[in-house]
Design brief:
With 270 residues, the protein is an alpha/beta fold. The chain folds into two domains: 48 residues, no CATH class; 207 residues, Rossmann fold (3-Layer(aba) Sandwich). It is built from nine helices and nine strands. The chain is globular and about 55 Å long.
Length: 270
């Protein structure tokens, strides 16, 4: 959003600009930049320009609010919101990728589509069989039939926030890595460079990473399951501390653990 503001300020100074009143929210960009832009006499704020959540997820109008609370480190508010949407919008948490895949296959009916999504920075999910660097063709992933190994149905190729931005599936498996993990009561941001993780200190980059997870957590129209790996104490790039804190935090946000009875055998038609 900040790039839109920059373009309007530098290249189109004479335009009248009509924006959603929700632009004032911190999630849409640098707080100072947005505030300055809103003060311009050529900017008009209108409530009806906001894209309502109900247009994106017909089962859970409060999904966006829930995800917003999760990434903003507001577990109590997230828990309260999760309780409101769970009856119509199932959300589960698991540490077993096979169980997550089985659950996705069991939920879809007819032509309902499902797939796996992860952050583009989730480079250490590779030991789990999730290779972010493997390039996918979006058209094949989103549109091809369940018999095509390139389609999302096969649960082999994983899409990132770049692939799915502005698009949705019916059911989504969100795969969580250590690039954005919860520890000691706060979110930690890091990037994997070469052979190790490096802390992300730049505020804009931290904001981008937070919004990347906001995107992948809001791609499911009907329900989702979140996979958080166990990690490996013998692998310094995947210590359990990168994952245990996130898992416990999501539990505190009200996300229930997938029980064995909730992960039936995969349906034969997928």
């Amino acid at each position: 959003m900040s790039e839109w503001i920059t373009a309007l300020e530098t290249r189109f100074p004479n335009w009248k600009v009509h924006i959603s009143s929700r632009m004032a929210l911190q999630e849409y960009g640098s707080e100072g930049q947005v505030e300055r832009f809103l003060l311009s006499p050529r900017v008009f704020s209108e409530e009806h320009l906001h894209l309502e959540v109900s247009m994106r997820s017909f089962r859970a109008e409060a999904l966006s609010a829930f995800v917003g609370h999760v990434v903003a480190n507001e577990p109590d508010a997230a828990h309260a919101t999760c309780e409101k949407i769970r009856a119509k919008y199932p959300i589960y948490l698991t540490r077993n990728l096979s169980d997550a895949k089985a659950w996705l296959r069991s939920q879809a009916r007819g032509t309902e589509r499902f797939g796996l999504i992860a952050s583009s920075g989730a480079l250490r999910l590779r030991p789990e069989g999730i290779h972010i660097k493997a390039e996918i063709e979006p058209a094949n992933w989103f549109l091809n039939e369940s018999t095509d190994v390139r389609s999302s149905y096969y649960l082999e190729d994983v899409a990132t926030e770049f692939t799915v931005q502005g698009l949705e599936l019916d059911w989504v498996g969100v795969c969580w890595d250590g690039d954005f993990h919860h520890r000691d009561g706060n979110w930690r941001s890091q990037a994997f460079k070469g052979t190790k993780w490096q802390s992300v200190n730049d505020e804009s980059r931290r904001s981008y990473l937070k919004n990347a997870y906001r995107v992948i957590l809001t791609r499911a129209r009907q329900g989702m399951i979140i996979f958080v790996p166990e990690g490996n104490s013998s692998d310094p790039t995947r210590p359990p501390s990168f994952y245990d804190g996130t898992y416990e935090y999501l539990r505190s946000c009200g996300v229930p653990i997938l029980q064995a009875s909730a992960a039936p055998n995969p349906r034969e038609d997928f």
